[in-house]
Amino acid sequence: MNFVCFLSIYILVSLTTIRAKWTDTFSSLYSGISSSISYVPCKFTECCNDDYISPNIDKLDDLFNTEVFGQQIAHRVIINALRGHLTWSDPPKALAMSFHGPPGTGKTYVAQMIAKSFYKQGQQSNFYHCFNGRNDFPLQQDVELYKEELRKVITESLKKCERSIFVFDEVDKMPEGLLNVLVPFLDYNTRLKTLRLYGTSLNTRKAVYIFLSNTGSTRIIQRLLALWEKGEHRSKTQLEDFEHLISVGAFNEKGGLHHSDTIHTSLIDHYVPFLPLEEAHVKKCINKSFTNRNVLPTENMIQEALSYVMFGPSPHNLYAIAGCKRVEQKVAAIIYSQRKQTENNEL
Ligand SMILES: Nc1ncnc2c1ncn2[C@@H]1O[C@H](COP(=O)(O)OP(=O)(O)O)[C@@H](O)[C@H]1O
Ligand SMILES: [Mg+2]
Hints:
about 50% helix, two-stranded antiparallel ribbon, binds magnesium ion, about 10% strand, Rossmann fold
């Protein structure tokens, strides 16, 4: 090999090495800059990352133990369902749970606790969406419009974050047929495993959908009473005692799930019964309300709060008709009137 040939090979090799080094340096510099660029806004606004979303089911379990009274079945079913869904790195479908039970038994309260245990910003998270049947979708004749709006909101949210939670409160007040729009979002998507909409590929399978309603309440109460009459203690009741009962009720009673495709195609994974609350549970709610306001209640104060709570159905009158609803307000009023009385006595 003559000298000129050797020199040209040497120059070529050197240039290639320099170029490769530059490319490396440039790309690491670029990725450093771009990760800082995406990091900086996430310092100030919520992003779909582990800093903001870290579902903590142990924390939810603790909250159930300390803050929720008389809902052992719901406790068990919800914790198991969420653990099952979250431990799957690629779940086969979105998780869909339907909470059923009389008013004031903790359905909305528990949905809010789930948000707290998922998102750093709890209910305020941009990835937590709560729709109310009565307020957001009041008119049956506008159902097609609502469907389009709902499809858009869900698609946009899933585009931003796969771990979104959608809560539909007062499902029984929603126009019939509206929730059929959810079928592609809840489905197994067996073929594509993604939903192609607006030219974007969406993973629909990591989301959680929660439906809340009073449908099935009468059946839940009747079944619980029948078990009580047979001497079976509430704490011994099982999901199987209620699940079929409420899925049938949800399908047949009027409202959002009435004859819906969502139920027809078995896209709801868990029907969760919320049992009517007894006097002992309502007393716990009353005590908690006083404690939250840093007041140690006397027995008289508890009895006064309890006197506003109606019980039924007759003849046994075992269950609070509106559960723990309005207990907070009654307790606040009692504390206020006690203070006023003390002030007047001091004058
Ligand atoms: N099982 C329960 N345990 C403890 N507190 C409860 C329970 N059920 C209801 N509450 C209290 O009553 C309030 C109203 O309950 P909520 O969850 O709105 O009832 P609903 O079942 O009608 O959605 C809650 O914010 C909570 O303070
Ligand atoms: Mg509610």
